[in-house]
Fold these 2 entries.
Entry 1:
Amino acid sequence: MIDAKNLTPQQVVRELDKYIIGQKEAKRSVAIALRNRWRRMNADEEIREEIVPNNILLIGPTGVGKTEIARRLSRLAGAPFVKVEASKFTEVGYVGRDVESMIRDLMDYALNMVKDEMQERVKEKAAEMVEERILDILIPPVRKSATNPQKDAVGFNVNNATDEELNERTRERFREKLKNGELDDRKIEIEVKSSKAPMMQVFGPGGMEEMGVNLQDMLGGMGKNKKSKRKVPISEAREILLDEESEKLIDHESAVQEALERVQKQGIVFIDEIDKIAEPSTGAGKSGPDVSRQGVQRDLLPIVEGSTVSTKHGIVKTDHILFIGSGAFHVSKPSDLIPELQGRFPIRVELNSLTESDFVEILSKPKNALTKQYIAMLAAEGVTINFTEEAVAELARIAALVNSQVENIGARRLHTIMSSLFDELLFAVPDDINSGEINIDKAYVEKQLDGLVKDKDLSHYIL
Ligand SMILES: Nc1ncnc2c1ncn2[C@@H]1O[C@H](COP(=O)(O)OP(=O)(O)OP(=O)(O)O)[C@@H](O)[C@H]1O
Ligand SMILES: [Mg+2]
């Protein structure tokens, strides 16, 4: 991929265009926000620390691409990214400081990301070490040692030069076989760290979380040093050991440092359903104030404004993390958020409802378009699917119709419609149909869906 961090705003928009139809304003804003991180990092040192990110509020009905834009953006940016649902913090059992968990998650994400990259860089070296380890298991090496003569499996003293040479030659032969993958199916016994934590969920008291201590990790850690022996095919052993060896080759401390840097300078937190923690200014909301909603906003405020959060990997400063809030704001308005929080999301972008013609494009254009997904799934079974233009138009028409008649769930409607459309085929392949071409034309769409669309009750449940 292109060095994503240096994408210009227009390049970002072009990349987003590959996945998201319409929503120009939203794409533009996030693209600018992303580039602003780079601008800040390259700005004069004196003022750099003063430049704060302009957080964004994405406002728009359900299923029009809010989350999708944020997700794609983070991938483009190669930036640490987490998505949280604000409403989750209003649930029963919520403890004040839980809101900080979003920063902890971000840190965990970043650390994994950095470690993956570092492991990737040492992959070749690690692979060599893995091969030696496997070879040692297959043909244990013989080494000259006066004080401690080694014996081979049968008990002979192998402590002489010719046996050593023989051993080395055998190892060489096996090394070759290993390289060629000839021994992939052979089983060997290896010692593996039992990384699997015991299957239980631990709910720590809020106070522990606050200190950045995670009970689950502590317990998991206890099991971590236990080693167990397993017999696995060499192909599998390779993967297990590769993980172990590359982990050994990387420096945990510098990974943590790098992750901290990235979180603080490039981290993106996507707060979904932020409207659900706003207090509607009219009607019931006023008379029976929902304390926990305002509470969540108050807890959120310091994090968004810039504060420090302790995580088990160190203290994270949140000042320059980019926050993208998102919500439908049907019942509440952005102005129903507490003023301090409103001020922290100065960029407001409205996303449009999607139209029938947007649906036509969404169905066919994005790299991950639904039609392409179904084509790929059935191609895996040897069946070729073709969509006619009229069929796609009809699907879009139905989606728009059902959205208007039942409930407007935006592009999500396309998912339910496509799964109904393909229901019969997905069951018939490969048992009844295992090759050939199938044309999805308008008539086929009508045959599969008309009944559902006309029957209001059915469309409520199925489409
Ligand atoms: N403009 C669009 N272009 C392409 N696909 C879209 C678009 N809008 C939505 N989709 C598709 O619809 C699905 C739902 O979109 P998304 O998750 O972004 O909705 P949302 O706006 O976040 O809604 P909600 O408010 O319910 O969270 C995704 O699978 C996405 O790929
Ligand atoms: Mg969403």
Entry 2:
Amino acid sequence: MLPDRKMYGLLNRPQSKSGFKPLPVVIIGNGPSGICLSYLLSGYVPYLKRHSIHPHPILQRKLEEAPDISILDQSIEGSMITLSRGDWMGLPDLPFKDWLKQKRRGLRNNRATAEDIAQYYQHYVMKKGLQKNFSCDTVVTSVKKVSAESISNHAQKDLQESSDSLWNLNEKSTEVFQVDGFFKTVKGDKEPFSIYAENVVLATGTYDGPTWLGVKGENLSYVHHQLSALEEAVKNIGVMSDPVLIVGAGLTAADAILFAHHCNIPVIHVFRRRVSDPGLIFNQLPKMMYPEYHKVHQMMKEQSAACAGPYECYVSFPEHHVLSFGKDKKCIIQDKNGYQKAYKISMALVLTGSNPNLSFLPNNGMDLAMDSDQPVNPKRNPIDVDPFTYECTQEKGLYALGPLAGDNFVRFVQGGALAVARSLLKKANKNPP
Ligand SMILES: Cc1cc2nc3c(=O)[nH]c(=O)nc-3n(C[C@H](O)[C@H](O)[C@H](O)COP(=O)(O)OP(=O)(O)OC[C@H]3O[C@@H](n4cnc5c(N)ncnc54)[C@H](O)[C@@H]3O)c2cc1C
């Protein structure tokens, strides 16, 4: 999708006089966090649905106290704003199951495919008329705070005049965010843009920077860090090929194993933990609901290098790690006792998690993290936000949503979006439009 004309004009505003007028808010990211916040800021006002029962009894009681007041206008404690819905990947007011039914499709074990989810989110944006808020194929490369004085006379004038707009911007605001980036044209060129905003919401997720092992040869062309590389490679790799090395013991690594298994591709599976380690995701998933992941776990247990099992084309190396990748496609792995083995492989997939790419922020966003000496990490070191507003404690006017703020599931994203919308609307000092 390309930016529509209105959005193109918006991103090119700096070239005209009025271009310096700061926007009330810029949201960076087009995943569920960005979509959900865009929905709430577009005039959709959430109320408690009559006769609905929230699974959390205290929250239910709170909501019932004021059913006629919009949830945006209610003061619900920070820890309780996780308005979990029946279908966990869904967004407000368009249940995922209903959409699937319309498509005459069902859920397997109550679960959806990634493709269905992607289509549902695209459909959601269209259905709720949010396209005008999105500028696709657009990459933000820098966000920094600048003083209104430093930008230009036009900007200052626009800041003062902006009280006529729908939003009442903070009169005392002397600083704004400068958001720079580019959007890709049909021809593949990069068109730069620069805009100013009173508030910026980081909704960029945490999947843009796959984790590297940091070992020798990891940058060789046969070593990959994304599952999609395997999907591409199966055109040339088959049952007679050297095995594919899969590193990691999370669900993405499991998906890769299942995919390779389905294509009869031999797999060497290397991971650091014991198969019985309670921290391993497979030991936390209910078997009935996730039979295919349970199968991978069984393979990991029953078909190790130390003891042959019933599964062909697969061998697991628990408590091993990769030492190096060679130019001759030989990979050296080592067990916990320091014993090394070399294997000739056709390709390697390092699937050990991912990190957010916040290179567009000063110091890669580290100053915003709970521990500002460490990089932002969704599980160990999320961005430090006020639990009632999701505004960064270290940078007023900057907000963080979704996994960046430690909300790692889609069902939690909605609570964060609600908090941000409420805070922004409060700042705007107007009732929700
Ligand atoms: C394999 C897998 C399975 C999962 N399964 C589940 C599940 O079953 N249930 C569940 O609840 N959750 C699941 N999740 C987690 C879920 O996907 C996330 O919680 C959710 O996507 C977070 O939404 P988000 O909008 O914050 O970020 P994202 O969905 O990651 O969206 C962020 C968007 O911002 C874009 N972006 C990043 N940087 C920039 C930039 N500089 N400029 C412009 N755009 C940028 C990204 O390209 C991306 O499109 C799963 C995740 C993975 C990887």
